[in-house]
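[[Local backbone shapes]]
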Amino acid sequence: MSFLRAFKYRRKDTAVHRLDPRSKFLLSTILMAVSIVFTDIRVLLALVFGQIILLSLAESLREWLSSLRGLLFFFAVIFATQLLFGGTLYTGFILSLRLLALSSSMSWFFLSSTPEDIGRAMSVAGLPIELTFSFTMAIRFIPVIYDEFQSIYDTQRSRGLELEKGGFRNRIRNLMPVLIPLLVGTIRRTYEIADAMEVRAFGASPKRTTFKPLRLKSGDYLVCAASAILVALAAYLKLLGIE
């Protein structure tokens, strides 16, 4: 579950962190779409390299590299399925590279955007407050669940539970003493949040105000222009027959 670290916000004072979440989300969505559309190794490598630059500007490259360990399992599954069903190592490499580009396209966005800013951006877009709140809470829950999983995992190991012995089936069975407390704790936390929302009269007023309104700045316009250029470049590559 270490790949969840790529979706935990880190408070830093960088040019990427200061951007409006709407412009960052636009660029992130376009990068994700290009990663899905293309399978050419040159395009995918360019996408990964560009996102490494974004992560470096956000000073979040170390967190991103740490989260890649969680993707090793998925890379292994991709290579195994390709070899078992008539694929090649090259195809497995391309699909793994695409997965890396896809995960990175949202990683730098979540690492540099607070859940509050994302919620404000969704509210400005006219989305219902219930949907906005649910999405924001989901973002907050991801790192919390990971931290709680790691805490329960370390606690069970300190008590002598051997979680890494045996085959794949035994390891899954050994995880039950970790997953059950994690599930119970998650359900208990959702009830606490629901009670807190009810006490604060959530949804009583249909019109909500915000303490920190969102405003596009010069850097945001540059990001939007870069997004438009990326879309035009992707369309041009498609016209050239590059897949």
